[in-house]
């Protein structure tokens, strides 16, 4: 099968299209015939080798790509609840071989039937970002109806899902983003918006139940400001797990009896099923990504690195016929 392989860490051009053996699923795995693979910020970090802790977990050569939509080609002996041919979406085993490839093996527990009302290209932009928002907000933040949440980075891939999930349960959403993304955020239901380029959220917000850090910012001084806007006993959740809280942040949290959580996404079939229901009911909209062919992975990463693209970038691995929906 064809796959994009990395044999050394470096610039996008280290990614090469190669012919490799098709993987074989273990008893608890499925073999997915990949139709599309979404690109996430972490793919760029993996390819560049820019995070030493993460790089130490990787073995080269490898195939990147941890956002997948496709159909089930084979099932391991222990897999239940799926059939050959099911259209699925999910997260293959991070940080093992991913889905910039014609086939990928993955734990069946990390996949679900994909939303029926969207194509594979759109479905491939969902799992990692949506699960990151879901885990952070519901597993760690314990967000409930009627609560007030400040979402920092509301316009991003993770943030866009976070805003819509929070609205779907009746929470009050304040989002930070660049002003040019306000139209989008109003369309998806944000109640209040703050332009982080020209406004200080700490002067405008107070007494929120939860602050969700889903921006690309890694700055503990900003986190201290976030704790200031929390209620007593509120919860600060960051998805930037590669950037630990320093002593000052921990002290600020303790002083207000607040909790601080670093939330890594949990790829769970049950969460993907809930997310699929919200998409099928129209409560959650999925933005269309910019599509590249698998062989153009280098250009796709270059575009992501240029930061000139708004929204997801997707590698289309196969032609998408109507039967394959
Ligand atoms: N823990 C996990 O499992 C996990 C999984 C996936 C992602 N992540 C992390 O989650 C973060 C978001 O990922 P993503 O894919 O959603 O990224 P993204 O689509 O690039 O979104 C980034 C967001 O950050 C905002 N932003 C950029 N610079 C900012 C600044 N100086 N101040 C405030 N906000 C700023 C952007 O706002 P504008 O575009 O409106 O300017 C945008 O809303 C990344 O740090 C990523 O590493 C974690």
Report on the structure:
Helix 6 links the parallel strand 9 (172-177) and strand 10 (192-195). The mean pLDDT is 96. The protein has helices at residues 41-48, 52-55, 120-123, 127-140, 157-168, 182-187, 201-204, 220-228, 247-255, 269-280, 297-306; strands spanning 2-6, 15-19, 29-39, 68-75, 87-90, 103-107, 111-113, 148-152, 172-177, 192-195, 208-213, 230-238, 259-262, 290-293, 313-316. The chain is α/β, with parallel strands linked by helices and 325 residues long. The strands form 3 sheets. Strands 3, 4, 5, 6, 7, 14 and 15 form a 7-stranded mixed sheet that branches. It has a 6-stranded parallel sheet with strand order 10-9-8-11-12-13, with helices on both faces. The chain folds into 2 domains: 2-126 and 286-324, Quinone Oxidoreductase, Chain A, domain 1, CATH 3.90.180.10; 129-262, NAD(P)-binding Rossmann-like Domain (Rossmann fold), CATH 3.40.50. 47% of the residues are buried. It binds NADP nicotinamide-adenine-dinucleotide phosphate.
Offer a few descriptive terms:
six-stranded parallel β-sheet; binds NADP nicotinamide-adenine-dinucleotide phosphate; 15 strands; Quinone Oxidoreductase, Chain A, domain 1; 11 helices; 325 residues; alpha/beta; Rossmann fold
Bound molecules: NADP nicotinamide-adenine-dinucleotide phosphate
Report the C-alpha radius of gyration, rounded.
20 Å
Shape: globular
Assign the CATH architecture of the largest domain. Answer: Alpha-Beta Complex
Portion in helices:
25-40%
Sheet with the most strands, sense and barrel status: 7 strands, mixed
Low-confidence stretches: none
| Helix-strand pattern | EEEHHEEEEHHEHEHEHEHEHEHEHE
**CATH fold-level label of the largest domain:** Quinone Oxidoreductase, Chain A, domain 1
Q: Strand share of the residues?
A: 25-35%
Q: Given the helix and strand composition, which structural class is it?
A: alpha/beta
CATH class call of the largest domain? Alpha Beta
Tell me the distance between the termini: 22 Å
């Amino acid at each position: 099968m064809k796959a994009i392989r990395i044999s050394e860490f470096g610039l996008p051009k280290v990614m090469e299209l190669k012919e490799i053996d098709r993987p074989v699923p273990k008893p608890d795995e499925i073999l997915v015939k990949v139709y599309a693979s979404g690109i996430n910020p972490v793919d760029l970090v993996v390819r560049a080798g820019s995070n030493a802790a993460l790089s130490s977990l990787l073995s080269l050569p490898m195939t990147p790509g941890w956002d997948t939509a496709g159909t089930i080609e084979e099932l391991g002996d222990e897999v239940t609840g799926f059939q050959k041919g099911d259209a699925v979406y999910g997260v293959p085993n991070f940080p093992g071989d991913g889905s910039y490839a014609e086939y990928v093996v993955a734990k069946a527990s990390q996949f679900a039937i994909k939303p029926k009302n969207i194509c594979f290209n759109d479905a491939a932009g969902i799992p990692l970002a949506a699960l990151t928002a879901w885990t952070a907000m519901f597993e760690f933040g314990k967000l409930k109806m009627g609560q007030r949440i400040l979402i920092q980075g509301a316009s991003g891939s993770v943030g866009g899902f976070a805003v819509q999930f929070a609205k779907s349960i009746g929470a009050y959403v304040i989002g930070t983003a660049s002003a040019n993304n306000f139209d989008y955020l109003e369309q998806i239901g944000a109640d209040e918006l703050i332009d982080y380029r020209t406004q200080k959220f700490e002067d405008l917000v107070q007494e929120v139940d939860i602050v969700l850090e889903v921006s690309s910012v890694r700055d503990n001084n900003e986190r201290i400001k976030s704790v200031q806007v929390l209620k007593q006993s509120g919860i600060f959740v960051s998805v930037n797990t590669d950037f630990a809280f320093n002593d000052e942040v921990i002290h600020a949290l303790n002083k207000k009896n607040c909790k601080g959580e670093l939330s890594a996404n949990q790829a769970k079939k049950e969460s993907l099923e809930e997310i699929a229901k919200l998409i099928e009911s129209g409560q959650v909209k999925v933005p269309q990504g910019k599509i590249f062919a698998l062989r153009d992975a280098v250009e796709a990463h270059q575009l992501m690195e240029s930061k000139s693209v708004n929204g997801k970038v997707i590698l289309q691995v196969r032609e998408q016929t109507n039967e394959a929906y």
